[in-house]
Amino acid sequence: MGFLGEIKSVWEHICTHYKPGQIEIAGVIIAQIIGFVLPAAAYLLIDVLFPEFSAKHKIQSMRRQPTTAQIWHCIKISMFNQIWVVMFHAVAVYLTGLEHSLLIMDSRLPSLKTVAVDFLFGLVAREISFYYVHRALHHPSIYAYIHKMHHKYTAPISFAAEYAHPVEHIFANILPIALPLTLKGTHFLSLMAFTVFELWEAAADHSGYDFLKLPPAEIHDLHHEKFRVNYSTLGIMDWIHGTHVVGWDRPQRKAAEQKKD
């Protein structure tokens, strides 16, 4: 029996011995731990275990890095967001009945082609949806009440990826990842695999390190440092809209001021 055969056997065993709702809840918890908590903790441990390597590969200078107290505060809020989302999801599944799943729970494994198509679809959907949600959160009428909290860390750390107002956490961190593939009718395992990747990407994007070029942490790190640049995750939507260069908005402001004069 090959590797895929073993996965198929394990998955069929799980589907046979556990209720769909139980599998869904467990899967969401495991995805959060593997995709975000462990990688985010690993990035932070670099500072402690390898200080010289850390100082060499930090994108921003060491004097701009958050204090120990700020790091612990970030971890506390980030983990709170993790916990309340899982609890809310678990309650929703429980109320609908553990015999049912809110997601596509098929005992048959999705094909590798299906997983690849779902993955590409999810990447594109998240890139587009996150860009516009993120731009909206930067609107002056919204920013101070919601998104300003996330920008507390101008030199971000891994856990800062989920250091956010609850409203932002739902509309910027959760829905752009989960909603498109859920509406597409993606297999539960395919959705969990994509979720794990995106959670890791979020931790990497906020890690503050440049030694791992995929995903490019420099893109989002610059957003935290300069504020009005790089709103998307992959940079595609920023390239399309011209928001990938620092100062992209200044000619527009200058033109507006000249019109007023």
UniProtKB/TrEMBL annotation:
Task: Name it.
Answer: C-4 methyl sterol oxidase, putative
Query: Which keywords describe this protein according to UniProt?
Result: Membrane, Transmembrane, Transmembrane helix
Name the major location: membrane
Q: Where are the transmembrane segments?
A: 25-50, 71-95
Superkingdom is Eukaryota
Question: Can you supply one Gene Ontology CC term for this chain's record?
Answer: membrane
> Which organism does this sequence originate in?
Byssochlamys spectabilis (strain No. 5 / NBRC 109023)
Single Gene Ontology MF annotation: oxidoreductase activity
Residues of the Fatty acid hydroxylase domain:
119-243
User: What InterPro entries does this protein's entry cite?
Assistant: Fatty_acid_hydroxylase, Sterol_Desaturase_Related
Instruction: Please cite one Gene Ontology biological process associated with this protein.
Output: lipid biosynthetic process
Which locations, inside or outside the cell, does it occupy? Membrane
Keyword Magnesium included in the entry's annotation: no
